[in-house]
Structures are given as structure tokens and as C-alpha cells.
Design brief:
single chain, 140 residues, mainly alpha, Substrate Binding Domain Of Dnak, Chain:A, Domain 2
Amino acid sequence: MSTIGHHVTTTRALYLLGALPAVLLALADRARALDCSNPITTADMVTCASRDFDEADKALNASYTSAMALMRKRAPDLPKAADRLRDAQRAWLAYRDANCGWAAGAVDGGSMEPLVSLGCKTTMTRARTAELKDVAKTYE
């Protein structure tokens, strides 16, 4: 490569690297400004569905942690109860993921696949959160 060609390539690379932070900031601003009550594009729908799932997953983890803590505190005479809940939760997570993978398989490879998967996971996660809240109530 000639010196001039190398200089042009280096200059382009530096220009692109210099523009990268601005592009990333613009994308971050767009993500924050996204109105999930009316997503327009498939990408927006996936972003919103992902946010819904993240919220549902946080609630699930909080309910699970609460149920485990209450079980350990209130049922010391049933030492295996918490272990069994832990095992059930692990099995449930695997089931949820497999079940939603199967459900999304109906649109395998299409733009709707992540929406179907995330919607399924969110619905199942919210239902499991309600179950765990009921479990926790029995130990309050």
C-alpha cells in the first residue's frame, strides 16, 4: 500500500472512531425516549418487550428471594423445603425457556421470533411471580 493510501485508510478509521461516541450517545438517547405505549418499528417492539421481560424478571427474583428467606426463617423444622423450592425454581426456569423457545419456533427466523419469545417469557414469569408470592404468604 502506498503512503497516501495508508494515510487515507488511517484517516477514515480515525474519523469513524471519532464519530462512534456520538452515534452511541444518539442510540442511547433514542432508547431512553422510546414510547413503549406505541412502538412503531419491529426493533422498537423488541426493545419494549425486552424491557417488559426485564421488569417481570426482577419481580420474579424479588419474589423468589422473599419466599426463600421466609421459608428458611419460619420453617426451620422443614430444612428441605427451601432446597426443594430452589430445585423447583431451577427446573421451572429451564421449562419456561424451553416452552417459549418452542412457542417462538412457530415464527422461527422471522422478525416476530424475539417478540413471541419475550412475550411468552414475560407472561410465564409474571404467573410464576404470583405463585411465589402465594408461597411467601404461607410463611408470613
